[in-house]
Amino acid sequence: MGSPFALFAPFLNALEEGVLFLDRERRLVEINRAAEEMLGEERERVVGRLCPSLFKGTACARACLRRKDCSLLSNHERETPTQTLDVTLERPEGSRLAVRMWAILLPEAEPEACLAVILRDRTREVLLEEEVSERMRLGKLVGHGPAMRALIRELLRAAQSDATVLLQGESGTGKELAARALHENSQRQRGPYIRVHCAAFPEHLLESELFGHARGAFTGAESARMGRFEAAHGGTILLDEIGEISPAIQVKLLRVLQEREVERLGENTPRPVDVRVVAATNRDLRAMARAGDFREDLYYRLNVLPIRMPALRERPEDVPLLAMTLLENLGKTPGRVRLSEEALAVLQAYAWPGNVRELGNALEYALVHGDGEWILPRHLPAEVTIRGDVRVAEAGTRYYRPSLAVEERTVIQQALQAAGGNKVAAAKALGMSRTTLWKRLKRLGV
Cis before residue 4, ω within 30 degrees of 0? Predict the structure, then answer.
């Protein structure tokens, strides 16, 4: 790199992001090694070229040519917030690369360049999005609405790491299912998966359960016993209801997270453990830490990768798929027992304060009180029926979506009908890719 960039060349060339420096005429002044690889051209061939020629066919290049100035630079000159653009680069050899780009305005004192354009490779992210779009479930988590797709994306991303995860959400949202999905999609999937329900043990027993004890450590300890952390070595441990543990246990847990070793009760010999920690709670640990009810340092140790579990009322579009799955788990296939449209409308309208667990209970209640092939509103619990009917009546058909019937064939047929036969629009409405929709049409013979 030439002056004045030579001083920073080692730093710039060590970055994974591509960096391009532009002057006010939108000509490329300098480029780092990562940007050369992304563009597929060497520095000598691109320096001096206008910016639009480097990003042919992209929305950014078209905007620049139409406006006769750099759209990213204009954003900065208007002092609007930095905007990112996701574009696909067409490289000289014919390959394509998905990148995210944004700009940084350089100090006016810099004589050669006024703007730095940053490029970040989105290949991994795009593959992840495609994988998410292909899914209607992750492990035993079921759903294809926006909230569920975002959750699956977060879980898959977190599964690629060994960092501690904090699952937060209301009771019944599936935190334990999310923890198991994390484990089953991680590199630790062949290792043990251990769950500890922290609220189920008194303090003195919880300490022994977590960390183990030596023989004679307390009355009744007739033999040595390893704790759950040791049992989870090489795998994953779920600390469910972490907000319920006592201050004394919090101190010892903090040490385990910091040192990655445990000491059994009655011993003073540390034992190393290789464990991925997932914590789950329906309480606001941040608020508890501020109030002094939970150690702040432990909260930050747990809150490395926070994931929020959406409540069922935030994703009513998933109720039909959940209902089908729950009926199957209860031993009743959709072919034998079906939800009527009226019952489905009530289920989608109800707020579900108990979330998926309450939905399962309502369906089990309906199976007991049902008297035929169809589950009708009168078969549902009174509270669900009354409150759901009120909201259906108030909102008309807004809470019932015919394109989301219980059976997959009906889901797809009605989505196509609603989209006027447009497969792209139908796929978007169903929350899947066009390729996935085509495969399912072929498999179902639709």
Answer: yes
Report field, pTM of the whole predicted structure over 0.70 = no
Q: Which of 20, 23, 49 is nearest to 32 (CA)?
A: 20
Strand order from edge to edge, sheet including 115-121: 28-31, 18-22, 115-121, 96-105, 85-90
Is 177 in the same domain as 279?
Answer: yes
Show the domain range for 393. Answer: 314-406
Same domain, 211 and 97: no
Q: Supply the DSSP string of 127-182, one letter for each residue.
A: HHHHHHHH-SEETTEE--SHHHHHHHHHHHHHHTS-S-EEEE--TTS-HHHHHHHH
25, two tokens? 């005429």
pLDDT at 220: 67
- Distance in angstroms (rounded) separating the CA atoms of residues 94 and 400: 47
Co-location of 174 and 254 in the same domain? yes
Query: Mean pLDDT for the chain?
Result: 81
User: Buried b vs exposed e over 26-44: b needs ≥16 C-beta within 10 Å?
Assistant: bebbbbbbbbbebbebebe
Q: Please state, as a whole number, how many other Cβ atoms lie within 10 Å of the Cβ of residue 424.
A: 11
> Quick one: pLDDT at residue 96?
84
Name the E strands within 332-438.
338-339, 374-375
Q: What is the pLDDT of residue 127?
A: 63
Number of domains comprising the chain: 3
pLDDT band at 392 (very low <50, low <70, confident <90, very high): very low
Q: What is the pLDDT of residue 302?
A: 95
Query: How much of the chain, in percent, has pLDDT values that exceed 90?
Result: 34
Is the same domain home to 258 and 363? no
Per-residue confidence (pLDDT) for residue 353, from 0 to 100 = 92
Comparison of pLDDT for 79 and 431, the residue scoring more: 431
Say yes or no: 261 and 372 in one domain: no
Tokens of 367: 């199976």
How far, in Å, CA of 42 to CA of 355, rounded?
56
| Residues in CB range of 127: below 8 A, 6 or more apart | none
| Residues paired with 277 in a beta bridge | 237
Q: Report yes or no on 443 lying in a domain.
A: no
Q: Report in angstroms the alpha-carbon separations of 78 from 82, 86, 105, 295.
A: 11, 21, 12, 45
151-185 burial by CB neighbour count: b if 16+ within 10 A, else e?
A: bbbbbbebbeeeebbbbbbbebbbbbbbbbbbbeb
Burial class (CB in 10 A: 0-12, 13-18, 19+), 427: buried
Cα dihedral value 425, 426, 430, 432, nearest 10: -70
Euclidean distance between CA atoms 411 and 428, whole angstroms: 13
Mean pLDDT (whole number) for 315-335: 76
